[in-house]
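The instructor's notes for this session suggest beginning with a concrete chain rather than abstract definitions. Hand out the sequence below and ask the class to guess, before any prediction is shown, which regions might be ordered.
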Amino acid sequence: MSARIFKDMGLVLGGKAGAGIVSLVYLIIAARALGPHDYGLLVLVHGYVTAVCGIVEFPAWQAIVRYGAEAHEQGASNRLVRLLRFGALVELSGGVVAIVAAMVLAPLVGPHLGWPPKTVAFAIPYSFAVLGSVRSAPAGYLQLIGRFDLIGLHNLAQPIVRLVGAALAWILGWGLRGFLAAWLVAALAEFAVLWAMGLWCAYRRLGGALFRPERGSATADNIGIWRFLVASNADVTLSELAGRIAPLIVGWVLGPAMAGLFAVAQRATVIIAQPAQILGNTAYAQLARMVAAGEGGAPLRRTLAHVIGIALLAAAPVVIIVALFPTPIVTLLAGDAFRAAGGLMVILVGARMIAVVGPPCSAALSAMGHPALSMSANLFASLVFLPILPWMLHHGGLAGAGAQAVGQAILASALLAGLVWRQSYAR
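After discussion, reveal the predicted structure:
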């Protein structure tokens, strides 16, 4: 089972590796073209929309994978069709609400984040970038049928569009609005490509029943699905809340230029965070199948320990390289104007290495039917550390943001690991 997880992860990581290289190129272009202040504004506008989406959206992929695995075991194709239609409706409805919320709140929040009036005005249509995150339903179905190759291919869509847009904005001198437009188009492409892939695969496997299913109810087919959806959605929101909110708090307290430095320092952590998140997501499909087949005890623990061990080993070289060469890395990525981000990068990378334990553990808890426990752990860690971030920024500057990230990572990872081990022994 571990071999299947790592094979699936390899397919996704192939796309992520290419996407990572492309993203470094457009980061170099954007940071050097805009400078710390305007790059900070770009980060804050996109981060604001992402944060609103993360809080309001209703991702359905975990429910599709968990209950879809049961339908697959039973050979119940009509149950699966009803589940897919239900998940798509829930997620798209949540996306519409998130877009409206982002539009309404932008004029209220923007001035506190240091946005000038023109940026506030552009942030309203930019709210449609929410759609870039409203794509978990097709991703869940592709995981369920093992099409991790398509998920890996999809990972290239957004970075390639961003790169093309960033190059045009730089060459033609379009400034901040040009880069925001490029980021918006990339988000829309990210949405459209994955939904097209999911629909194509579903139609090929399920045929016309996908659009004309037998009578029935997804909520009746899948007892407890609403409770599972609410808990898993809250868990995803809270597990990612700190990463989404922290740059906004930095911008609110220290201004756009410091938010730009913080964003560049965070970039190195993505190299660690993405494999861990991919491991969690790909492991979830296999762990759900293990639980559905009655293997939720010792086999699950062994698989999870293997997954976490690989994640830590993958993260270690990045931590060492960043610790040895922080300033050269920052200046290579963003230029001399961002040199001050070097020290913070070391702290954030260390925090991210600790946090790689979280996604696989959250996946295991959800696979065992306990997403509420993962949610509770992430909620507790966020409630302890996020409220003190403004105070830490006032007293320690950007280093305070690094200390906050380390503390939250330690607490969340310890809680999640303890909960997994307790629940797996109870099975």
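Then share the key points. The chain has a mean pLDDT of 81. Residues 2-426 form one domain.
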